[in-house]
Amino acid sequence: MRSIQKTGTKELGGKLERSKTSGARYVLLRPAGYPLKSVFQDYPEVADPRLFERYAREQWYGELVRPGCYLFDRRLYPDFAFKVIRAHPHVSVVGSDTKIVVERKKTDAAKIKSEVSFEDVVGQKEARRKMKIVESFLSEPERFGKWAPRNILFYGPSGTGKTMMAKALSGKTKVPMIPIKATTLIGEFVGEGSRQIHGLYKKAEQMAPCIIFIDELDAIALDRRYQDIRGDVSEVVNALLTEMDGIHSRKGVCTIAATNKIEFLDDSIRSRFEEEIRFGLPNAEERL
Ligand SMILES: Nc1ncnc2c1ncn2[C@@H]1O[C@H](COP(=O)(O)OP(=O)(O)OP(=O)(O)O)[C@@H](O)[C@H]1O
Ligand SMILES: [Mg+2]
């Protein structure tokens, strides 16, 4: 009889027959994060261990477990990985009475705390002034109509405080920020990148108000001529354009993108930003 179909531990291949493997009595899991780092920052909180145990048994019923392998969440936090730290017996199968425990988080490393404030940013007067508008938009989005500064582009040389300013904004307004590097959006498989983008925005909408900070935008939003060379890149760009578009806008989501090569950006992307904010090199006075 074969009642279990889903395979979780690839490394064991077909060598072990599940039906012959004994049921796990005890499994200790450690939250390991997402396979694609830095896209999502949130963590499944295990507030109620008994509730989690039920949730875990249900979705991983029949999964082979042994120390070192991973179990992936398929429900609340799709793809979030839990590493199996201990299993008893050593190689076993999750059953309806397996005791499943999640290790307590030791640090809060997954949550970025922004200790930067606007006051720490030297110079950049023009940027600071424009940030005030964004700040009031994030505090009272309903006051803004059509002209809301939802998509903002930071540009300027490296090390001029673009990332710093985004962090300060998040800290000041207490609006969470999801930082992502554009390069991580280029998936290994076709369709993966656009799925990531949509997932990202969906998540942000649930958390709204929320800031999505896309660093190194130029890595994906190159001129069309270059995009043609890599189809997967233009697919990511198209997904991003859809999300940034006013018509399908996600409520309460503000996109801030940063680049130090604005001249390479594709016009279709550039025109989506309601505001472009320039970061200049500090002058002699500001340097002191
Ligand atoms: N205007 C500024 N005022 C104070 N410190 C600054 C300023 N600009 C840069 N710095 C310092 O330099 C560091 C790097 O700045 P930041 O990461 O914000 O630059 P960036 O513009 O995002 O650069 P990149 O384009 O390379 O990402 C900051 O952590 C900060 O210590
Ligand atoms: Mg930066």
Please provide a written account of the structure.
Residues 1-15 and 107-112 have low confidence and may be disordered. The N and C termini lie far apart (77 Å). It is elongated and about 70 Å long. It has two domains: 10-102, Vcp-like ATPase, Chain A, domain 2 (Roll), CATH 3.10.330.10; 118-287, Rossmann fold. It contains eight helices and eleven strands. With 288 residues, the protein is α/β, with parallel strands linked by helices. The strands form three sheets. Strands 8-9-10-7-11 form a five-stranded parallel sheet. α4 links the parallel β8 (177-181) and β9. The protein has helices spanning 49-60, 125-139, 162-173, 192-207, 224-227, 231-244, 267-270, 284-287, and strands at 26-33, 64-65, 70-72, 81-88, 92-93, 99-102, 151-155, 177-181, 210-215, 253-259, 275-278. Bound molecules: adenosine-5'-triphosphate and magnesium ion. Magnesium ion binds at residues 162-163, 215, 258.
In short:
With 288 residues, the protein is of the alpha/beta class.
Order of helices and strands: EHEEEEEHEHEHEHHEHEH
Strand content: 15-25%
Principal-axes shape call: elongated
Average pLDDT number: 80
Name given to the CATH homologous superfamily of the largest domain: P-loop containing nucleotide triphosphate hydrolases
Q: What is the name of the CATH class of the largest domain?
A: Alpha Beta
The CATH topology of the largest domain is what?
A: Rossmann fold
Q: Give me the number of helical elements.
A: 8
Q: Spell out which ligands are present.
A: adenosine-5'-triphosphate, magnesium ion
The number of domains:
2
For the largest sheet, list the strands in their spatial order. Answer: 8-9-10-7-11
| Class from helix and strand fractions | alpha/beta
CATH architecture assignment name of the largest domain: 3-Layer(aba) Sandwich
How many β strands by DSSP? 11
Percent range of helical residues:
25-40%
Radius of gyration in whole Å, from Cα? 23 Å
